[in-house]
Amino acid sequence: MQTKRYEIAFLTAGDARSTRAWSGTPYYMSMALTRNVGDVDYLGPVNPSLSSFLGKRFSSVSRKILGKEFDYDHSFLLSRAFGKIFDRKISEEKYDVIFAPASSSIIAFLKTRIPIVYVSDTTFGNMVNYYPRFSRLLSISIRQGNEIERRAITNSTLALFPSEWAANSAIRDYGAKRTKVHVIPFGANIDPVPSRERILQKRKTDKCRLLFLGRDWERKGGVVAYDAFLKMNRMGVDTHLTVCGCVPPSRFSHEKMNSFHFGSKNKEFESLLLNSDFLILPTKAECFGTVFCEASAYGIPSIATNTGGVSGAVKNGENGYLLPPNSGGDDYAKLITDIFQNDERYYRLVRQSRDLFDQRLNWDSWVMEVGALLGKLL
Questions:
Q1: Average pLDDT in the 255-278 region?
Q2: In 257-355, at which residue ranges do the beta strands (DSSP E only) sit?
Q3: pLDDT > 70: what percent of the chain?
């Protein structure tokens, strides 16, 4: 058992004390570290204004003239500026370890002897031609992004990823040593967590309540989710669809469909989760998806696409099912209907979803594994 509390430098460009940054992941990660590992010193937010301005201007000109994007977030200009700023911040205090969540650009040019724990849900290489905004990059932007990722992984003492998809890329594409790469799934970004007893007491009705949760209707597969919803109703299953996080285009409307755009995870959001039977997310591109961890906390089976790092959060037959990327609304409708109409199968998924959250998909479980690695390291 760990007895010493470590002094932790927490490096982020944004404000890790806000739940709005990266869907709250740095906040909940740092809270778990504070509870179980050591004292966290937040060294962000940081904004190298001149470098950011020049990068954004170059990107704007490139988009207008060449029709190509320049990813200034992964540029040498910004990364070197981050390196200088955080070199100075780190030298002002004595730290045992540095945590850098989603901060490849911050640690790529960092000069320190302090062990660095790099945490990310993906690598730059995985994103190129996968996420829409990484699909029309200038060749120089790709080269700089890959070099920054390589430097970040090389500079880190531990590289932690929530999925095999991301970890394999670090090893395959950037030559990371297998001994430094570890797969530890992230946790649910919710507080408070509903009690297990409350969740297992939930009962479904004759109405199947689908929840689509995401800020990007197109990338998250909103069209397929809508088609599945329509198909289930045509099959005679009274199905209702709630869209949360985005507003679908006006042509996607139905009397049994509602949409909400909550600014934060409040009581209304909690009520929405408590009154949903399935999370449906036929996403086209996803690095991990903490939303699947949150669904599991509420005993909601997730029906999603087997793409990117989703399999790090959704286990077939445990807390949901993953369908092939080319699956359409009919495929989702048939699977959900089969499960919904079989009480034994449905409630088994509900129980197993909560089991997986309790055992694995929570931040205290994440930090316990991380703490064990730090114990060996420090």
A1: 87
A2: 257-260, 278-281, 302-305, 320-323
A3: 98
* Chain centre distance of CA 53: 27
Residue intervals in the chain for CATH 3.40.50.2000:
6-187+362-377, 196-359
**Per CATH, which fold does 6-187+362-377 belong to?**
Rossmann fold (3.40.50)
- Please give the model's pTM, rounded to 2 decimal places: 0.96
pLDDT at 54: 87
Give the up-direction half-sphere exposure of residue 227: CA atoms within 13 A in the CB hemisphere: 12
pLDDT category of residue 33 using cuts at 50, 70 and 90: very high
- Tell me how far the alpha carbon of residue 189 is from its chain's centroid: 10
**CA–CA separation, 355 vs 310, rounded Å?**
18
Whether 9 and 97 have beta carbons less than 8 Å apart is answered as: yes
Q: Could you say which of 3.40.50.620, 3.30.70.330, 3.40.50.2000, 3.30.1360.200 is the CATH number of the domain covering 196-359? A: 3.40.50.2000
Say whether 319 sits in a helix, a strand or coil: coil
- Measure CA 33 to chain center: 18
**What DSSP string describes 146-212?**
HHHHHHHHHH-SEEEESSHHHHHHHHHHH---TTTEEE-------SSPPPHHHHHT----SSEEEEE
